[in-house]
Design goal:
The structure holds two protein chains of two kinds. By secondary structure, chain A is mainly β. Chain A has one helix spanning 17-23, and strands at residues 2-5, 8-11, 15-16, 32-35, 38-40, 49-50, 55-63. Chain B has nine helices and ten strands. In chain B, helix 3 (87-99) packs parallel to helix 4. Classes of the chains: A mainly beta, B alpha/beta. The interface between A and B is medium-sized, with 22 and 37 residues.
């Protein structure tokens, strides 16, 4: 199914946000997840199902001033 | 007779209940490479290190993250809301940053103009009020306007961060009078943020009596960032020591340092 991750349309398998991170080879401890404009706590990632058309933002810390 | 050098005793810097020994805070942006950044931070002696919140690059997430190079056990990560032009965006970025799980401090930036990167003080106050209500320790990046600084303090900010000059400009402290006035009138710590270009700028800034200074480009864009970080460390300490020592009054006429009596006929 198609979802929008960080502004880009992407085809992913169905599952939870935690499974999505695994599919993207991302460490859940190293990213913060926003699902349809709502922040999902790390502990809750396994309890939220990803649906087609969802908007997901995956952010982390980069260099900045 | 003692040979020990008596230095001025300073108190540590406390912001939002956290205590820091170093009054120099540094950014992590614009370094030629990550290894230089790590060495420069070490040379600066800074404990507070700012980071930005950005989208993960899905192709190379690990290399991209600053946490791949910095140990949050050794530095205090201060997330910023750089690049945000509305209160709403800044609040969103701050919430995401807090969710990373390190602390509830945020360096709040709401930018109002692309060319000068000067703050939108209305948006800043709006975002500050929301974030303070949500329990954030807000360090608000603002211009050198006293009234805005007072309102930010009233809003509950943990520190107010007036600029020395525009972000990344390296113009140094343009308005020492205003920065001194802000420091005199506020009760929360005043940390000058942005605009420092070289060590003398940092020194002059600290001589105004402010509680600390935050810089990024002055170190990262120096020809030798590690050496400049060391210089900034010394300048920050020197400026602080000079402030505590209390400078001599300025006078418009000369006064001889040597005795005027006892001269030969």
């Amino acid at each position: 199914m198609d979802v929008v991750i960080n502004g880009e349309r992407k085809n992913v398998s169905s599952g939870t946000l935690l499974e999505l991170l695994k599919e993207l080879e991302l460490d859940p401890r190293a990213v913060v997840v926003e699902h349809n404009r709502k922040i999902v706590r790390r502990a809750g990632l396994g309890g939220v199902t990803v649906n087609a058309g969802d908007a997901i933002e995956l952010v982390h810390f980069v260099g900045g001033g | 007779m003692t040979t020990a050098v008596e230095t001025i005793r300073d108190e540590p810097l406390t912001i939002g209940g956290r205590t820091f020994q170093s009054r120099l805070m540094v950014g992590t942006g614009k370094y030629p490479d990550m290894e230089t950044m790590v060495r420069a931070i070490e040379a600066s002696g800074a404990e507070v290190v700012t980071v930005a919140v950005r989208r993960v690059n899905l192709d190379r997430a690990k290399e991209n993250s600053v946490l791949h190079y910095l140990d949050p056990k050794h530095v205090f990560l201060l997330a910023n809301t750089a690049g945000c032009y509305t209160a709403e965006d800044a609040v969103r970025y701050a919430r995401l940053a807090r969710e990373a799980g390190f602390n509830d401090f945020v360096k709040l930036e709401v930018i109002g103009d692309e060319e000068t990167l000067l703050p939108d003080v209305q948006g800043l106050l709006e975002a500050a009020r929301i974030l303070v209500k949500e329990g954030f320790k807000v360090l608000a990046y603002t211009n050198e306007d006293l009234v805005t600084a007072l309102r930010l303090e009233d809003a509950g900010c943990a520190a107010v961060m007036p600029l020395a000059s525009p972000i990344g400009s390296g113009l140094g402290l343009l308005n020492p009078f205003s920065v001194r006035t802000i420091k005199r009138r506020l009760h929360v710590p005043v940390i000058v943020d942005a605009g420092v270009g070289t060590a003398s700028d940092a020194c002059v800034t600290m001589e105004q009596g402010v509680d600390g200074i935050l810089m990024n480009t002055a170190i990262a864009a120096a020809q030798d960032p590690v050496a400049m970080a060391h210089a900034m460390r010394l300048a920050t300490i020197a400026g602080r020591a000079a402030f505590l020592a209390g400078r001599m009054p300025r006078r418009d006429v000369a006064m001889p340092s040597s005795p005027t009596k006892g001269m030969l006929d």
